[in-house]
Amino acid sequence: MTNKLQKVDHAALKANQLTIIALSILAFILNQPWLAAFVAAVMGIGSLLKVPGFLPLYQKVLKPAGLLKPDVLDDNPEPHRFAQTIGFFVLGIGAVLLFSGSASGWVLVWLVVGLAALNAFGGFCVGCAIYYWLARLQVPGFSKQPPAGVTPGMKPRAS
Predict the structure, then answer these.
(1) In angstroms, rounded to a whole number, what is the distance separating the alpha carbons of residues 114 and 52?
(2) Residue % of the chain over a pLDDT of 90
(3) Residue 76 CB neighbour total at 10 angstroms
(4) Element (H or E) spanning 8, and its range?
(5) CA dist list (Å): 45 to 28, 51, 99
(6) What per-residue confidence (pLDDT) applies to 158?
(7) How far is 4 from 18, CA to CA, in rounded Å?
(8) Which of 89, 98, 105, 116 could join 17 via S-S bond, C-beta 3.0 to 4.6 A?
């Protein structure tokens, strides 16, 4: 297993999570499945580009306005991308269910909201923890270990 850490701006991740939360709740309140589908699409595009989906919002609005300050930590970006990809699939399936007339899609939307909130407000990334567990099981494609002294899924501390 390899573990060369990179610089990861956790403020960009938090901006992404907060935007996912806000837009998904708005989709529910307004009963607009297209908004849930939009959030899923942005997450999917971000996964393909290997960046947080709502990174432009952070870079162009939140950071310049001083609403979020960079929080750059030594970390692995791969678990965060994996978590976003899981969120894309869950939210995407939720949107498909909503478009097919099944209100059960909102359960999946709220699952994504809950997990994003756990990460944004609690510092625990369930998708990251799953990534590290898969690495521990030596599943191909999952090779990173959490930073030294960090519980899998928890946000690393500043050094």
Answers:
(1) 18
(2) 96
(3) 24
(4) strand 6-9
(5) 22, 9, 20
(6) 82
(7) 28
(8) 116
Please state the domain extents for the chain: 6-136
Residue reference for tokens 């432009």 = 56
How does DSSP classify residue 102?
-
Give pLDDT tens digits for 87-117: 999 999 999 999 999 999 999 999 999 999 9
Phi-psi region of 76 (alpha: psi -120 to 50; beta: other; left: phi over 0): beta
DSSP-based three-state secondary structure for 78: helix
> What does the pLDDT read at residue 27?
98
Tracing tokens 């001083």 back to the chain, one arrives at 66
Buried b (16+ CB within 10 A) or exposed e, 107-135: ebbeebbebbeebbeeeebbbbbbbbebb
pTM above 0.90, yes or no: yes
